[in-house]
Design a protein that fits this description.
- GO terms for molecular function: diguanylate cyclase activity.
- It holds the Pfam family GGDEF.
- Its EC number is 2.7.7.65.
- It catalyses: 2 GTP = 3',3'-c-di-GMP + 2 diphosphate.
- The chain is of the alpha+beta class.
- The protein folds into 2 domains: about 160 residues, 2-Layer Sandwich (Beta-Lactamase), CATH 3.30.450; about 150 residues, Alpha-Beta Plaits (2-Layer Sandwich), CATH 3.30.70.
- It has a 5-stranded mixed β-sheet with strand order 2-1-5-4-3, covered by helices on one side.
- The relative contact order is 0.10.
- Bound molecules: guanosine-5'-triphosphate.
- Guanosine-5'-triphosphate binds next to strand 6, helix 6 and helix 7.
């Protein structure tokens, strides 16, 4: 190799190294799955003239998938095509791989953190000679090590954020978490003319449950209620605990003509709750509530507190009419 060619190579490597370092710094500042995955799966190909990047992650209990899906939201669903969740990802060495069509060359990088194998990052190119067998991969292995560290950090940071927005007793969203979910739903509704529905519900005579069966049984009722509601809801729905035994649901995309049926299902599930007191006797339960279908309009802002005020008025009527019933808010 001629000296000028060597110098040219060294210059190119130095420039690539600088760009990679700048990219790694961006990765290290990510705190949410959305930022991390957008940067890695869209930013990396765009900044390094690649045609695709995919991530395979070890996810034996499905926890990563659940939290990533929540963070990504429906709108960034396209990123999901570049993500694969596997209970076990085969351990590999860094090196070129046969790419899936239409790509012509590919590189697989293992993601290792403290000797724990977290998954693989794969890069693909439409050019045959971009990744070749035996090529040097030191720079890219460094990127993979930083990616693995970020994967662990973002997981921890998402977990902390989730805890701050979650009610510790029931696992439902707390008021702050629910407020955030409402804002997101409202904004999405405005952009996409998307309807959503909300339900407010309050367990009937809950004070009596506590007084007769004890606070422990009361707590079990609340936990079981949330578990059951989550079972009858869609994974993209939101359940919030707004007060002691008052809960609210956000049902994205629930059409007005389906809403009464969904509410009926919720009501049935509550009546059928199987919670035992300390003497192993079943505690009969019911709830009262109200529901509303919302179509956000451009240039309009309906605050969560306003919606809850409407719903509260109808909930109060449902209690007054004898409980164990849900009333539709008439708009
Ligand atoms: N076990 C338990 N009880 C709670 C919790 N938070 C609030 N409560 C109780 O929930 C009860 C709410 O009672 P009320 O607001 O009088 O309502 P209610 O008895 O359900 O009557 P109606 O709503 O009119 O049917 C109170 O006794 C609270 O102490 C909790 O985290 N655990």
């Amino acid at each position: 190799m001629e000296l000028t060619e060597l110098l040219e190579n060294a210059r190119r490597n130095e420039a690539l190294l600088k760009r990679l370092q700048a990219f790694e710094l961006q990765l290290l500042s990510c705190q949410t799955w959305l930022d991390f995955l957008t940067l890695l799966l869209e930013g990396l190909p765009a900044q390094f003239d690649l045609d695709a990047a995919t991530l395979k992650v070890c996810d034996p209990d499905g926890e990563l998938k659940a939290t990533m899906l929540q963070s990504l939201d429906i709108e960034q669903g396209v990123l999901l095509n570049q993500l694969e969740f596997q209970s076990r990802v085969p351990v590999i060495e860094a090196g070129s791989v046969t790419p899936p069509p239409p790509w012509r060359s590919g590189l697989a990088l293992p993601l290792l953190r403290n000797d724990v194998y977290l998954g693989q990052l794969r890069l693909y190119s439409a050019s045959d000679d971009r990744f070749q067998p035996g090529m040097a991969t030191d720079f890219m292995q460094h990127l993979a090590a930083v990616t693995a560290a970020c994967l662990v950090m973002v997981k921890q940071s998402e977990e902390q954020a989730r805890l701050a927005l979650t009610d510790p007793l029931t696992g439902a969203e707390n008021r702050r978490g629910f407020e955030r979910a409402y804002q997101r739903e409202w904004s999405r509704g405005q952009r996409q003319y998307h309807v959503f529905a909300m339900v407010l519900l309050d367990i009937d005579h809950f004070k009596q449950v506590n007084d007769v069966h004890g606070h422990g049984t009361g707590d079990r009722v609340l936990k079981q209620l949330c578990k059951t509601l989550k079972r009858v809801m869609r994974p993209t729905d939101h359940l919030g605990r707004l007060g002691g035994e008052e809960f609210a649901l956000i049902l994205p995309g629930c059409q007005p003509d389906q809403l009464a049926r969904v509410v009926e299902r919720v009501q049935q599930a509550i009546r059928q709750l199987d919670v035992m007191n300390d003497q192993r006797q079943r505690v009969p339960l019911s709830a009262s509530g109200s529901y509303i279908s919302i179509t956000p309009r451009p240039h309009q802002q309906l605050q969560l507190s306003d919606v809850l005020d409407f719903l509260d008025r109808y909930l109060y009527q449902a209690k007054k009419q004898g409980r164990d019933r849900f009333l539709s808010v008439e708009q």
